[in-house]
Amino acid sequence: MKDIKERGNQTVVTEFIFLGFSNHPQLQELFFLIFLVIYLVTLLGNLLILTAIRINPVLHTPMYYFLSNLSFLDICYTSTTVPIMLVNFFREKKTITYEGCLSQVFFLITFAGAECVLLAAMAYDRFIAIYHPLRYSVLMSKKVCAYLAAGSWLCGIVNSLTHTVLMATLTLCGPNQISHFLCDIPLILKLSCSDTSANEIAVYATNVIFGLSPCLFTAVSYMLIILAILKIQSTQGRKKAFSTCASHLTVVVLYYGTINFNYDRPRSGYSLDMVILVSVLFCIVTPMLNPIIYSLRNKEVKVALKKLCVQKLQCSNPFLTWSSRTLSKNY
């Protein structure tokens, strides 16, 4: 299929060529192996978190409800870009169709925007838990949690639809090369030979609404949380309060830091390798690290994961099931 075709007096792009990782052709097999392992670890880690939360009644709380949403988002988020990138490592010409590119942009922005809002909702949950512990069950009821989670998804979808519709109206001319391993709005706008002012305004609004605003909201929430923790008299109480927030704070710093640097940095002065590295961090590495951070920093999650692993081992080994029942009867 030709990647550029004639329409009147203009050449119209029907296919894009990715140039990401093209600076290192000799490392394609190594890159494939590294990203395959990261992707599998991401899927396994987040699926374990989802399963552990679902089967353990102790984890049926607002905090873990949001965490299960985050894990599901991370699976979707990384699956938007990694599979096609892995396939392209074995292609001499690393391509994606115009329709495929629009679809990738739509899903990437949907999941990224939803995650930004969801992380802010998780910060609000921690703020209520620390500042209003006696009213926590009322202020963070199941209904409120469902509204917050649904709101984050709705924000991501509305934002993504806006950008995708605006992009679909552009006329894209040659060249059809994208200096990346994924389709992204700023990269597509560079290929347009029509007016992109509306798209640029939408990108700026998105950076403020989904990048800066949730980040500032989360920062203010944690400033208030830290002040509240410092007022707790007992050392053990302060340590317990901080431990409930440490995992989320680590994830927030990692995610907001990489995504804001990727979209708010100057467009010039950075090499292709640096651009690729930053995108790999927030698109591929962060979804892998999230379940690791939560499982290492959270005692309840670690206990739930251990129980899940023991149950799986017992199901696969009848002798372990028999011995555990015998021990429980005798003791």
What are its keywords?
single chain; 331 residues; mainly alpha; Rhopdopsin 7-helix transmembrane proteins; two-stranded antiparallel ribbon; 11 helices; 5 strands
Any overview of this molecule?
This protein has helices spanning 28-55, 62-88, 98-131, 136-139, 142-168, 185-189, 197-230, 235-264, 272-297, 299-316, 318-330, and strands at residues 4-7, 10-13, 15-18, 95-97, 177-178. By secondary structure, the protein is mainly alpha-helical. The protein has one domain (4-297): Rhodopsin 7-helix transmembrane proteins (Rhopdopsin 7-helix transmembrane proteins). Helix 3 (98-131) runs parallel beside helix 7, helix 3 (98-131) packs antiparallel against helix 8 and helix 8 (235-264) packs antiparallel against helix 9. The longest helix is centred in the middle third of the chain and has 34 residues, at 98-131. The protein is globular.
The name of the CATH topology is Rhopdopsin 7-helix transmembrane proteins
Helix count?
Answer: 11
Q: N-to-C SSE series?
A: EEEHHEHHHEHHHHHH
Give the spatial strand order of the biggest sheet.
4-3-5
Structural class: mainly alpha
Describe the largest sheet: 3 strands, mixed
Q: Which stretches are low in confidence, meaning pLDDT under 50 for 5 or more residues running?
A: 322-331
What count of domains describes the coordinates?
A: 1
CATH architecture: Up-down Bundle
Gyration radius over CA: 23 Å
Whole-number mean pLDDT: 81
